[in-house]
Task: structure prediction
Amino acid sequence: MQSKILVSACLMGHAVRYDGRAKPLLHPAIETWRAEGRLVAICPEMSVGMTVPRPPAEIAEAASGEEVLAGKTRVVELTGADVTEEFLRAARNAVALARQAGCHYALLIDGSPSCGSGFIYDGTFTGHKQAGNGVTAAALKAAGVEVFSDREIELLIERIAQ
Result:
């Protein structure tokens, strides 16, 4: 049996991003995997009842998802609201779903304080990017799931073919 792939719901065309939009990833592999029943979509934030739209959130202090998981920093909205607990629960939901569905891989939207795996924003809400993982991406990696950003779909295709 082929391994399943956990995928950010926004990449599948679901309008679940903080701004109420989708960011569909149009690629032949997505259609192939969808037809094979290999894709398991999740929006971690929606899984814990966060609304759409919602204020943008970033990991504070130019920190990473790993530091959020370790309790060293928090996730805050542009409004100043602390949404750390929601992001931690969202990450746990994603890990649980990946385990339940047998997902060995994840294809996640980059830049998100939840799903980012190549880059995230630095917590200043000024558009500055930094290398790092969001909370869900960090939790999935810690659980042994191989995480790929939407910009790395060719790498995921190669990895699956091995």
